[in-house]
């Protein structure tokens, strides 16, 4: 009635080309304030999706161990979301070597990501996938958290992805 026709178009709302980056910044700021890590599937700037062959997302330590035990070979590995889901420690690298499972922290720093506690000098990587690729070729030093005084140091390359 009244000759007014409703349009399905929203002429007054124009898409902004900067909207995705603004949303990304707002999400990052929110996660930093809340102490929670951003969505883990997309890394740094959204430029890389982690490989499902080794990235398992939000699974528990025991679930990660089950995946590794299915492969049951030295060098079986996966990356899972960290149990505490903090911005500074978003992921954990889980490795099977000599029938023992190692959970290694993946931490954020100002240059990207690094392995371990950060107490000793550690190499930084732009992406988590760079860590994985490096340690496919260069063995990783495995430290037994329950037996740190042992002089035995095991090294293992990331050989068998235990993901999906």
Automatic annotation (TrEMBL):
Keyword set, alphabetical order = SH2 domain
What Pfam families would the database entry show?
Answer: SH2
Q: Where is this region: Disordered?
A: 1-47
| Protein's GO biological process | cell surface receptor protein tyrosine kinase signaling pathway; intracellular signal transduction
Where the record annotates domain SH2, the positions are 54-162
Q: Which domain of life is it from?
A: Eukaryota
Can you cite an annotated GO cellular component? cytoplasm
Instruction: Show the ranges annotated as biased composition (Low complexity).
Output: 14-23
The record's annotation in InterPro entries points to:
Immunoreceptor_sig_adapters, SH2, SH2_dom_sf
Comp. bias intervals (Polar residues): 1-13
- Residues making up the signal peptide according to the UniProt record: none
**Keyword Secreted annotated:** no
Q: Per its record, how is this protein called by name?
A: SH2 domain-containing protein
């Amino acid at each position: 009635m009244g000759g007014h026709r409703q349009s399905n178009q929203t002429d007054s709302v124009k898409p902004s080309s900067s909207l995705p980056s603004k949303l990304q910044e707002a999400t990052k700021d929110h996660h930093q304030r809340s102490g929670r890590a951003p969505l883990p599937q997309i890394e740094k700037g959204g430029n890389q999706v982690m490989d499902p062959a080794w990235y398992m997302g939000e699974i528990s330590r025991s679930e990660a161990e089950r995946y590794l035990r299915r492969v049951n070979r030295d060098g079986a590995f996966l990356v899972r979301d960290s149990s505490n889901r903090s911005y500074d420690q978003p992921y954990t690298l889980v490795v099977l070597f000599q029938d023992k499972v190692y959970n290694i922290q993946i931490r954020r720093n100002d240059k990207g990501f690094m392995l371990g506690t950060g107490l000793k000098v550690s190499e930084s990587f732009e992406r988590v996938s760079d860590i994985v690729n490096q340690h496919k070729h260069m063995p990783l030093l495995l430290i037994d958290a329950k037996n740190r005084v042992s002089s035995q140091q095991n090294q293992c390359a990331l050989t068998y992805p235990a993901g999906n």
